[in-house]
Amino acid sequence: MHHSAVKAVLAVLLLLVPALALASDGGNRLDLTTEWVGYSALLIFVIAYALVMAEEFTHLRKSKPVVLAAGVIWLLIAYYYTSHHGDPHAAEEAVRHNIMEFAELFLFLLAAMTYINAMEERLVFERLRAWLVASGWSYRTLFWMTGFIAFFISPVADNLTTALLMCAVVMAVGADSPRFVALGCINIVVAANAGGAFSPFGDITTLMVWQKGILEFQAFFLLFIPALVNYLVPAYFMHKAVPDGTPPPSDDVVKMKRGARRIVLLFLLTITTAVSAHSFFHLPPVLGMMTGLAYLKFFAYYLFKTHEEQTVKVGTLEDSMPFDIFNKVARAEWDTLLFFYGVILCVGGLGFIGYLELVSQFAYGDVGPTFANTLVGLLSAVIDNIPVMFAVLTMNPDMSQGQWLLVTLTAGVGGSLLSIGSAAGVALMGQAKGIYTFFEHMKWSKYIALGYIASVLTHFIVNFWTFSKPVAG
């Protein structure tokens, strides 16, 4: 058969569209990589993902094409198995497996997003912004402060929320200095992506690796020094271009709403519950997160019941609206959550067809894991890192802990190379429209690339012992 030709074509496709490598578990499978089903599914996914990448121009939300593509791909697979193979249940079992993968990720993210929305509504982030704006620090001090805060908040909150918060600070203090705003935004994108790489909660990709049970919770923190290097190298070069001077002072005062601090503590308790359930009892982390969401629901009930007396007592309008927990659930980023559904099912479908073996052999067999894992980061600068990481997870190559940490690092920080490479970058281009642009970011890409190379080398140096250690899963 002409498998060698198909393998060569897929090798090229891997360089261009990494999400094509996707795979899925599932019983007795036929190799459909050279059948019309395989080519059709591949084409459908490429078209859907092209629409995802063109979202900025078409304004078609990214979840729509991939959710449609997922349904069509699995219908084609089910039709082929039923009509040509007489097996109506093979596709059903594989779809159920993929939906279970999505359900764990979905519920985990829903709980986390609800907490972030609750903290936002209680003005936790606004209070931090007001404090920084009123600090009276120089542009250069604020450049470092916003960068480091983004680096250390993103491991707990997601990097998108962190970047938006810090960008609001930069824009507020840099109203008279577009140069500072542009450099501050680039700095924040790099810092937020780097900070998210050393924590299971910092990025969707790290969460996926943790939930899969490949790396233990504490193992991610081995990436702290490489991630810090990834941020510090480009920040050092950008710092020199930050304008001198101090922004005009501000007396903006923000008071957090009732219960804000307790919600922050409940979020930390929720994280502790999720980690403990997984570490001590080997339960899925999502169980701990949903239990933690119940903490917030009961506290929301308390805020609601005591709302009227508190409003009378304080005598202000700041807490005039009762706290409604389901409003916070409704404000979750549903486009993102449904995008994950589409990606995971598209990925599962293409893997079930049989493209896993071809690409996995090329990437992790012929080329080797170090090159393949480093390439993942470069690809995630162009393609969303979620399908790329899902591809690696479902291929499940036999790698050491060090290599799994490497791919976690590169998938997390690779998106910083271009402004369109991460959700944080895309969001900030909208928030600081005309100031932080694709080409403004590109001017500093060589220094960001230097940080990327430095972080990979740092990982090999400081975590050398992990490359001979097997993974947990």
List the helices and strands and how they pair.
Elements: H1 3-16, H2 36-53, H3 55-58, H4 63-84, H5 90-121, H6 124-133, H7 139-153, H8 159-173, H9 178-196, H10 204-211, H11 224-239, H12 260-281, H13 285-305, H14 307-314, H15 325-330, H16 334-367, H17 369-379, H18 385-395, H19 401-413, H20 423-431, H21 438-442, H22 445-462
Architecture overview:
With 473 residues, the protein is mostly helical. The chain has helices spanning 3-16, 36-53, 55-58, 63-84, 90-121, 124-133, 139-153, 159-173, 178-196, 204-211, 224-239, 260-281, 285-305, 307-314, 325-330, 334-367, 369-379, 385-395, 401-413, 423-431, 438-442, 445-462. The chain has a domain at 105-330.
Summary?
With 473 residues, this protein is mainly α. The protein has 22 helices and no strands. The protein is globular and about 75 Å long.
Level of helix content?
Answer: 55-70%
Number of helices: 22
Distance between the termini: 36 Å
Q: What shape does the CA trace take?
A: globular
β content, as a range? under 5%
The number of distinct β-strands equals 0
Could you tell me the radius of gyration in angstroms? 23 Å
H/E element order: HHHHHHHHHHHHHHHHHHHHHH
Average pLDDT taken over every residue: 84
- Uncertain runs are 1-27, 312-318
Tell me the structural class.
mainly alpha
Biggest β-sheet, characterized?
none
For this entry, give a set of tags:
473 residues; mainly alpha
